[in-house]
Amino acid sequence: MELILKYFPDLTEDQINKFKQLESLYQDWNLKINVVSRKDIDELYLRHVLHSLGIAKVMTFNDGSKILDVGTGGGFPGIPLAIMFPECSFHLVDSIAKKLKVVNEVVEGLGLTNVKTTHSRVEAIDDQFDFIVSRAVAIMPTFVHWVKGKIARTQNNDLKNGILYLKGGDLTEELKDYRTTTIYNLSDYFSEDFYETKKVVHLPLKYRG
């Protein structure tokens, strides 16, 4: 938890309480339904919570923004971002039901009212969003294909509507066809070794009616 406060010192008391509760909620539920490896549970704040909040370092979502989290798994990056931006709405989607059961229990345990979950493939979601976030569930061309037509027309934020993707390693080949991407190195924001090769990729996408 000290790790979160190190990089986000201006959290409200409510946000601090919610972030603190994450560890016990995930430890409890992970014993029943394994969604996070044991090593990762021991380093939950470093490997999952702070990693998710890398998006919050490059983007402050304005109130009222709608964000879709594709392949949320155990609720990352959606749940930490929902705590960070309580006036935004988050839709967390995963095709694996047991993972969403944990997500729903954590959301309920935290009392988050700005999170909705759906057990589905993302292609079946019929809605539009300011941003689509995810943690490396597929290579970018595949991901772009999945989320086609889900970007809202109206711009409400400083960054253009589109994808904010948490990725690692050398992305040269994967992103060669996307000239409009901006890559943010998380090592510029976080000093821990874990973030040495981690990045946030912003890919603006046009509205398609």
Query: What's the overall geometry?
Result: globular
Given the structure, what is the number of helices?
7
Sheet/helix structural class: alpha/beta
Number of domains: 1
CATH class: Alpha Beta
Radius of gyration: 16 Å
The CATH superfamily turns out to be: Vaccinia Virus protein VP39
**CATH fold naming:** Rossmann fold
Report helical residue fraction.
25-40%
How many angstroms separate the termini? 43 Å
Largest sheet at a glance?
A: 7 strands, mixed
Q: Architecture, according to CATH?
A: 3-Layer(aba) Sandwich
- Widest sheet: strand order? 3-2-1-4-5-7-6
Kindly estimate the percentage of residues that lie in beta strands according to DSSP: 15-25%
What is the string of SSEs from the N terminus onward? HHHHEHEHEEHEEE
DSSP strand tally: 7
Low-confidence spans: none
Overview of the molecule:
The chain is of the alpha/beta class. It has a single domain, classed as Rossmann fold (3-Layer(aba) Sandwich). The protein is 35% helix and 19% strand. It has seven helices and seven strands, in the order H-H-H-H-E-H-E-H-E-E-H-E-E-E. A seven-stranded mixed sheet has the order 3-2-1-4-5-7-6, covered by helices on one side. Helix 5 links the parallel strand 1 and strand 2. The longest helix is centred in the N-terminal third of the chain and has 20 residues. The relative contact order is 0.16. The model has no long low-confidence stretch (mean pLDDT 95).
